Amino acid sequence: MKNTIIALGLVFSSLSASAVVLEAPLVSIPSHDAFFNNISQHCGKSYQGEVTIDNAKGSSFANKPLIMYVRKCTDNELQVPFYVGDDASRTWIITKTGAGLSLKHDHRKVDGSYDESTMYGGHTIDAGWSNVQSFPADQYSKELFVTQGIPQSATNIWQMYIYPTKFTYRLVREGREFRVDFDLTKPIKNPKAPWGYQE
After folding, report:
1. How far apart are CA 166 and CA 6, in angstroms?
2. How far apart (Å, rounded) are the C-alpha atoms in residues 68 and 34?
3. For residue 160, how many other CB atoms are within 10 A of its CB?
4. Which value, to the nearest 10 degrees, does the dihedral of the CA atoms of residues 153, 157, 163, 166 take?
5. What is the value of pTM for the model shown?
6. For residue range 128-160, what is the model confidence (pLDDT) as tens digits?
7. DSSP-assigned letters across all residues of 126-188
8. Which of 8, 34, 89, 135 has fewest C-beta within 10 Å?
9. Chain centre distance of CA 108
10. Cα torsion at 85, 61, 155, 92 (round to 10°)?
11. Dihedral pair phi/psi, residue 85, rounded to 5°
């Protein structure tokens, strides 16, 4: 009996010495990976855009230069600042979550501190396509919008389209549509880092 216990101990010791230790995988599906990669191919480049649809009166986006800058790319996150004239408060953050893709809007004040309305956005709920993904508002965003007195925004759906010559950012909900198209055929000079980020 003693010899059996010693033998078993040697077997377990050998197994533990050769065991593989890995972090839990961050899984994804092909359409999400392809969409993510299609944007990351533009890492380090900036593009001029224009508002093509905006049915809100007195929009703050009217007659201002619009720039997207695919500024930082890792295997799991893309940071894309969106500049509206001199306003560098907005950064889109697209993240692989293991359950799809998340889109967040990081809003900062000019001193770099967080805006009262920040990190709102949504999460994919289906496969989407390699060129198009939709992000219905997540629960954090819904509660934030209600607290801020804009409950109509709780039904927001953000969409992004990425094609060889065009990138589109679109917001839709009942009675509201906003769309900006960026020309991917003509890279422009990169702007400075957005508010709250280092050069």
Report:
1. 68
2. 20
3. 22
4. -20
5. 0.89
6. 999 999 999 999 999 999 999 999 999 999 999
7. S---SSEEEEEB-HHHHHHHHHTT-GGGGG-EEEEEE-SSEEEEEEEETTEEEEEEEEEEEEE
8. 8
9. 16
10. -20
11. 60, -125
Among residues 176, 144, 183, 148, which one has the least CA distance to residue 48? 183
Answer yes or no: are the C-beta atoms of 73 and 92 closer than 8 Å: no
Which residues make Cβ contacts (< 8 Å) with residue 118, sequence separation at least 6? 105, 106, 107, 108
Q: pLDDT for 1-36, tens place per residue?
A: 555 544 445 444 555 567 999 999 999 999 999 999
Rounded to a whole number, what is the distance in angstroms from the first to the last CA of the chain? 68
The SS3 assignment for 8 reads helix
SS3 125: coil
**Burial class of residue 154 (count of CB atoms within 10 Å of its CB; 0-12, 13-18, 19+):** middle
Q: Which of 97, 101, 106 is nearest to 79 (CA)?
A: 106
Please name which of 45, 86, 81, 47 lies closest in space to residue 64, comparing C-alpha atoms: 86
Q: How far apart are CA 138 and CA 132, in angstroms?
A: 18
Which of 56, 30, 80, 81 shows the shortest CA–CA distance to 177?
56
Distance CA 199, CA 193 (A): 5
**Length reported for the chain:** 199
In terms of Cα–Cα distance, which of 198, 195, 163 is closest to 82?
195
